[in-house]
Design brief:
By secondary structure, this protein is α/β, with parallel strands linked by helices. 34% of the residues lie in helices and 18% in strands. The protein is built from 9 helices and 15 strands. Helix 5 packs across helix 6 and helix 8 packs parallel to helix 9. The protein is globular. The relative contact order is 0.14.
């Protein structure tokens, strides 16, 4: 794949934007999970809290796999999916009950926990039960939300919008840095390519890694947004291919939505990784990571 080129043949504005980004990211920890240290970590869990029993079951199953493989692990699930395609789609248990469930998993499993927030007013409440507040891709430019999340003192994960160039994520980084909270990272989840389709430009991983540690979302990157009669479709068969490429490219962590029965999942089942496929995939990715860092 060639470099950036301008149509006029003059110096490319995008290349200058990339060159102007200064490497300022520093490693930090989220509980026992090192971020940006050179050790690959995993964020994984169901898209949404379907029930307390199911969330705890998934946390336990994934924790067993990651503990066996020595992979630092952060559990993730959403208390509310506010950006579902259809008004009739399942959204989750809500802020208060969802935060209680996530805090229970945090305490009883001894795991760092991540959830996404959609409104500034939710940040302080959610921060009581989780270690990482995630800014959804659609909201990555919302200044008040970014600032409110960072002001809680929790780590913040900002998903790059499908409509945002990787070099433009420096503006989101600037908003986080304005709060004095240095504990943040960025996640690539694909870019819009026409209607109902996403592609991943692997160059974005290196560009954004100049700003902060970078995570690759291997499941939302294979999503077919709103492409299945009111819900999003997906191509999960490409999860291994894209995650292998991302690990070889040097990402700090991986984000995977994992479910024990994707066909019956209440959100994003079409692009989720089946629980049975997590261990062999991680084994493969760890080998690639070791080779890439050898």
């Amino acid at each position: 794949m060639g470099g950036f080129a301008s149509r006029s043949g003059s110096t490319c504005v995008r290349s200058r934007a990339c060159d102007s980004i200064q490497a300022v990211n520093q490693p930090f920890s989220i509980g026992p999970v090192p971020v940006g240290s050179g050790q690959l970590f995993l964020i994984a869990g169901p898209c949404v809290i379907e029930s307390e029993a199911h969330a705890r079951k998934m946390a336990d199953a994934i924790q067993r796999i990651t503990a066996d493989l020595g992979v630092p692990y952060i559990f993730k699930a959403s208390y509310d999916k506010a950006n579902r395609t259809s008004v009739t789609s399942f959204r989750g248990p809500g802020l208060v009950e969802g935060t209680r469930i996530l805090k229970t998993i945090q305490q009883q499993h001894g795991l760092p926990v991540l959830t996404d927030v959609h409104e500034p007013g939710h940040c302080a409440v959610a921060a009581e039960g989780v270690d990482v507040l995630q800014i959804p891709a659609f909201l990555c430019r919302q200044t008040d939300l970014l600032v409110a999340a960072a002001n809680t003192g929790r780590a913040v994960n900002v998903k790059k919008g499908q409509f945002v160039a990787p070099w433009d994520m420096q503006h989101a980084v600037g908003k986080l840095e304005s709060t004095g909270n240095p504990r943040f990272f960025l996640t690539e989840r694909g870019a819009s390519f026409g209607y109902n389709n996403l592609v991943v430009d692997m160059r974005s991983l290196g560009i954004m890694r100049k700003m902060a540690p970078v995570v690759f979302d291997g499941t939302h990157s294979v999503q077919i947004p709103s492409g299945s009669n009111g819900v999003s479709g997906g191509q999960p068969e490409f999860i291994p291919l894209l995650t292998r490429a991302a690990v070889a490219a040097g990402v700090d962590g991986l984000f995977l939505e994992v479910h024990d029965n994707p066909a019956e999942a209440k959100s994003d089942g079409a692009n989720a990784l089946h629980l049975d496929r997590l261990r062999p995939l991680l084994e493969n990715l760890l080998a690639i990571h070791a080779a890439a860092h050898g």
